[in-house]
Automatic annotation (TrEMBL):
PANTHER family: LYSR FAMILY TRANSCRIPTIONAL REGULATOR, TRANSCRIPTIONAL DUAL REGULATOR HCAR-RELATED. Keywords: DNA-binding, Transcription, Transcription regulation. Belongs to the LysR transcriptional regulatory family. It comes from the Bacteria. This is LysR family transcriptional regulator. Residues 6-63 form the HTH lysR-type domain.
């Protein structure tokens, strides 16, 4: 298909004149004098190769060629105007698509309030929410398959990614209701030494896994992990069956399972960190908008 070379001012002048059918009125709408308008129309007719208007004393009207061109000219101008408006909306971050990865346990804490506030401020943005653990989130950010991550225990240093802490929380012991320690209001970590453990695999979040095992090592024992589960809800379900105990972030208390007891641990100084993560060189304007949402309406960080 031959690429048309029709300057937009000529198309605009043609459409206005076709609507007014009067050079004086059309020139006034366009904010130009009549001679420049006549020149624009002649140049356009030269491009087309045929007259677009028939000029008779006291009146003008569209020729068959002009009537044929008018819908396409209007469509082109409208399409361009809509395209420019859409580009400005996307460029400003008022519309577009934001892909967010989140650790499942954060659906109990940070995620609902963050999404609610963001949607109130940017209702036209399409949110793509994907549940994934920390290690897959970090990979997805680097591979550009998500734009924002909400994860636990981010790496201390990273040249590609930025991190901001949004929440810290202590750990709790997760016990079967029938476990002898469930009768206590608080549990010393060393009291868990003789119980098998149920934990997330280290591969899905090495820093958090190491933080939990280091709590045990500081209490004088290495935990005997006999079961793994990828999600905390599954960990709690396995604990309920009596397969072991666990140490988990305090927000896991919100998983309501009748046969599971959550108990404060002693000492209780250790805290797990929840962070938002993003690519430092990301050009998506929605990313800083989401980060600003966190700054303007931060969750309870303690």
């Amino acid at each position: 298909m031959e690429r048309p070379e029709l300057p937009l001012p000529q198309l605009h002048a043609f459409v206005v004149l076709a609507e007014e059918l009067h050079f004086g009125h059309a020139a006034s709408r366009l904010g130009i004098a009549q001679p420049p308008l006549s020149q624009q129309i002649r140049r356009l007719e030269d491009k087309v190769g045929y007259a677009l208007f028939s000029r008779e004393p006291g009146r003008i009207c569209l020729t068959p060629a002009g009537r044929q061109l008018l819908p396409a000219a209007r469509h082109a101008l409208t399409g361009l105007a809509e395209g420019l408006a859409a580009a400005r909306e996307v460029g400003s971050g008022r519309v577009g698509r934001l892909r967010i990865g989140f650790a499942a346990s954060l659906a109990l804490t940070v995620l609902p309030g963050l999404l609610r506030t963001f949607r109130e401020r940017f209702p036209a943005v399409d949110l793509d929410i994907q549940e994934m653990t920390t290690t897959p989130q970090l990979a997805a950010l680097r591979e550009r398959t998500i734009d924002i991550g909400l994860l636990r225990e981010p790496p201390a240093h990273d040249t590609e990614l930025g991190f901001e802490t949004v929440l810290t929380e202590p750990f709790v012991a997760v016990l079967s209701s029938s476990h002898p320690l469930a009768a206590q209001r608080a549990v010393r970590v060393e009291q868990l030494a003789d119980s098998p453990f149920v934990l997330l695999p280290r591969a899905v979040g090495p820093p958090l896994y190491d933080q939990i095992t280091n709590l045990c090592i500081a209490a004088g024992f290495t935990p005997q992990v006999t079961q793994h589960a990828v999600e905390w809800q599954t960990v709690c379900a396995l604990v309920e069956t009596g397969l072991g105990v666990s140490l988990a972030p305090e927000s896991i208390r919100r998983i309501r399972l009748k046969g599971v007891a959550f108990r404060r641990i002693e000492p209780n100084a250790a805290r797990t960190r929840v962070a938002v993560a993003w690519r430092k060189n990301d050009s998506n304007p929605l990313v800083p908008h989401l980060l600003a949402t966190l700054d303007q309406d931060p969750p309870d960080r303690h």
